[in-house]
């Protein structure tokens, strides 16, 4: 058995609507898929101690994050019958209203696609060394807590 290649999940800046649409469109020719589940993480303009968040700047210990994501990917494929799984996470600055996380799972049936997608999102939030600085209009920032 050959070892699967570690996939790069990171994109610089926001994940564009066109990128998401093209990813979905590529699956229309696959006739063995009955369901897709998609999670899009969007930057909110929270107000923290009276200051409005205008962006989040993401950083990561990339090598460790990619190795961990590879492990998560393998575990999810063992647990669920998926046709495919795509995960993309932003690095760098992402403005409010923009997408910073895109998880897309496909399966024969909806239940596995939905459950796998939800589990991947939780594992990314809890286990990957990715950090975000919430940036305020005045330029100040606070480190974001994953919730």
Describe how the helices and strands are arranged.
Elements: E1 10-12, H1 17-25, E2 35-42, E3 47-48, E4 51-60, H2 62-79, E5 82-95, E6 99-107, H3 110-127, E7 130-136, E8 141-143
Parallel strand pairs: 1-5
Antiparallel strand pairs: 2-6, 3-4, 4-5, 4-7, 5-6, 7-8
In short:
Helix content is 31%, strand content 38%.
How does this model look, in words?
It is a single chain. With about 150 residues, the chain is of the alpha+beta class. It has one domain (about 10-145): Alpha-Beta Complex (Aldehyde Oxidoreductase, domain 3), CATH 3.90.1170. The protein is about 30% helix and about 40% strand. The chain is built from 3 helices and 8 strands. Strands 1, 2, 3, 4, 5, 6, 7 and 8 form an 8-stranded mixed sheet that branches. A hairpin with a 4-residue loop joins strand 7 and strand 8 (about 140-145). Helix 2 (about 60-80) packs antiparallel against helix 3 (about 110-125). The longest helix has 18 residues, at about 60-80. The mean pLDDT is about 95.
What is the CATH superfamily classification?
Answer: Molybdopterin biosynthesis MoaE subunit
Could you say what the CATH architecture is? Alpha-Beta Complex
N-to-C series of helices and strands:
EHEEEHEEHEE
Going by helix content, strand content and strand pairing, the class is: alpha+beta
- The separation of the N and C termini measures 38 Å
- Largest β-sheet summary: 8 strands, mixed
- Give the CA-based shape: globular
* CATH third-tier fold name: Aldehyde Oxidoreductase, domain 3
Rg over CA atoms, rounded to whole Å, is: 16 Å
The tally of strands reads 8
